[in-house]
Amino acid sequence: MTTDNNQIKRWILPSPINEVEIDNCSINYTLQKVLSRRGLDLKNDLDGYLTPLDLPNPEDHFNELSKATGRIIEACRRNEKIAICGDYDADGITSTVLLVELLSKLGAKPIPYIPSRQDDGYGLNIKMINEINKIEINLVITVDNGISALKAINRSNELGIDLIITDHHKIPDFKIDVFAIIHPERSPSNSPYKYLAGVGIAYILAKNLCNKLNYDIYKSSANVLFCIGTIADMAPLIGANRKLLKEFLPQIRTTNNIGVKSIIKKLSIDQIDITPEVIAFKIAPLINAVGRIGDPKVILSLLSNKSEDHIDKHIKECFSLNKERKRLTQLIEKEALEIGQTQFSNGQKFLVLTNSEWHLGVIGIVAARMVEKFNLPTAIISLGNDGLFRGSIRSNNLLKVNHALDECSDLLIAHGGHAAAAGFTIKEENIPKLMKRINKIAIREFKDYNLDKTITPDAYINLVDINLDLYRQLMLIGPFGIMNNAPIFWTRKCRVLDIYRLKGGHIKMTLNDGSGSIDAIKWNNTKKIKTNDLIDIAFYIEINKWKAKTNVQLNLIDIKNYSNTIELKIHNHLYKCKFISNKDILITNNKGQSICSRLSTHSKFNKSQEVFAKKILTFAEIALGKAA
C-alpha cells in the first residue's frame, strides 16, 4: 500500500514586518507586505518594479554580440545560406523559428536543423555539421544548444565554417574556439540578461540585428515566440525576462503568426488573457509533444507557415501527437511510481528509475511528476536507438542536479543542463554505480533539510478584501513564474457553504470566513470535506471567466481542518496560540507557562525575556490571522 507522499506537511508562515516600511505606498496594503517580504525596498524601488526600466544596450553586456551581428548582416547582404541549429523542445523550437523567420525577412536564406531525439540525442553533432558542409553553408548559428558540443565545434573548424553559438546551458571547462559566443554566463554579474533562456538569447541577437538594419522587429513574431520559449523553459522571470514578458504577453492574442493563432483557437483560449500559466500548461506542452515523440519539422512548419492551406493538417497532427504523449506519460508514470515507491521506502534520497522500454520523449515529464510525488530529485532513464541509455533529471530545488552530474562525470558519456533540470547519456553497466553515487551526493546535500513538502504563504488576507481591484494590482507584480512566484495567501476559519464534486476528483466550493464569501476550486482533491466544515486554506487568487462573467476565485493549494489553537515552532520550541476574550492572544509553551497579549509588560520577565515574549506575540498575530 502506497502512502500519499504528495500531501503538504507544513506551512512555513512569514515573519512579521515593520509597519513603517509600508507607509504611503501606491499599492494595496496586503500586496505591500508581500513585496516587502520578498526584499523589495518599497520607498525607493516600487515604481521601477511595477514599471521596469528600459534594458541596457546588449552589446555592453555580451562582448561578442557586435562581432556576431556584423557577420550575420554580411550574410544577409550576400543572400547567404545560414544553418540555424536548434533543439527539439519548445525553447529550441521557438528560438529556431524566431531566427529563421527574421533572417528570411532580412535577406538571408536560413535553413533549420533540429536533431532527432531518438536517433541523434541533444544538440549540435558531427553528422549535422557534415550535412551542412555538403550543401556549402559557411555560417552556422546554434540556438539553445552548442556550448558543450566539442566534437561538432572541432569539425566545424576543420571545415572552415563560421560558428556562432547562442546558448544558456552551463559553459564547460574546455576551451571553445568558435567565431562568436553569446551566452548569459559571459554577461556581467548584475546583468538583467543573466537569466535568459535560449529563445531570449536568440531574441537579443535578433533585436540587435534589427537595430543595426533599421528593421522593425514587430513585423516578425519574435515577441510571441520569446514569451512561449521563455515560459516553456521555466526561465526565471526577473530582469530582462520579466521586462519583456510584461510588454509582450498582452500582444499574443493579436499575433500575426498564423500557427500560434491556430493553436490558441484550437485550445479554446482565444477569449482569455494569455498568462504564463496558460502558456506553461496548454501551449508549451503541445509544442513539446511534437519534439518529444514526433518529427520536430511538423511544429517548425506550423509556426513558420505563411499559408493557411497547410495549417489544418499541421494542427491535427500536433494535437494527435499531444494526445499520444499524454497516453504514454500516463502509462510510464504508473510504472515509474511503483519503482519510485520502493526506492522511497528504502530511504533513497535521489530516485533513479530505469526501463529500456520507456519512450525517451516523455521521461522528462515523468521525472517531474515523480518530484511532485516524492519531493526528491529524480532521474528517469531509458534506451536510445543507438544502444546507449539516456536520462532526464528534475530537481526538488534543494539540489543542483547539473553539479551532481559533474561529480559523476566519469560514469557518463555526456551530460548537461541546469540546476533544476538536466540530462545525460550513460552505458547500461554504469547505471547502478550512478544510482549509488548520486544517492550519496543527495544524502550529503540534504543533511540539514527537512524533506517534508512545505508551502510558504506570503500574507494573510480576509475574503472580503479579495476583489477585482486587488486582482488588477496583483497583476502589476507579475508576470509570475520561477523566481517571481505568484503570491500564496491564507485565510482561517472558512465555513464551507456549498460544495460541488467535479469530474477528475476536483471540487468547487463557496466559502465564508465571517467577512465575506467567495468561490474556490481545489484540483485533485484527496481531503474529505462536507458542507459546514470549518477549514483553513492556502491559495492563489485568480480570475474565472464564464459566460461573459468575470469573477475572482481562489485556487486552493492546501486545506487544513480549522482549530482554535495554532502550534508555532520557533527555535525548535513549540508554542500553542489561541484567541481568548476580546481577541486577546494567549500563548502557552511546553512547560505550561503562558503569556497574554493584553499585558504589555510582565513583571516576572527580565528584559530579554520581555523582548522574546513580544516577538512570539507578533508571530502569533500572523499565525492566527490578526495581522497580514
Description:
This protein has 628 residues and is of the alpha/beta class. The strands form five sheets. A five-stranded parallel sheet has the order 3-2-4-5-6, sandwiched between helices. Strands 7-8-9-11-10 form a five-stranded mixed sheet. Strands 14-15-16-18-17 form a five-stranded mixed barrel. Helix 5 packs parallel to helix 6 and helix 11 crosses helix 13. The protein starts with 9 loop residues before the first strand and ends in a 5-residue tail after the last helix. The chain contains 18 helices and 22 strands.
Secondary-structure map:
Elements: E1 10-11, H1 29-37, H2 42-50, H3 65-77, E2 81-85, H4 90-105, E3 109-113, H5 126-134, E4 139-143, H6 150-158, E5 162-166, E6 180-182, H7 198-213, H8 222-232, H9 239-248, H10 258-266, H11 276-293, H12 296-304, H13 311-345, E7 351-354, H14 363-374, E8 378-383, E9 389-394, H15 401-406, E10 414-417, E11 421-426, H16 431-445, E12 454-455, E13 459-460, H17 468-477, E14 489-501, E15 507-512, E16 517-522, E17 534-546, E18 549-561, E19 565-570, E20 573-579, E21 585-589, E22 594-596, H18 607-623
Parallel strand pairs: 1-12, 2-3, 2-4, 4-5, 5-6, 7-8, 13-14, 16-18
Antiparallel strand pairs: 8-9, 9-11, 10-11, 14-15, 14-17, 15-16, 17-18, 19-20, 20-21, 21-22
Helix pairs in contact: 3-7, 4-7, 4-8, 4-12, 5-6, 7-8, 8-9, 8-11, 11-12, 11-13, 12-13, 13-14
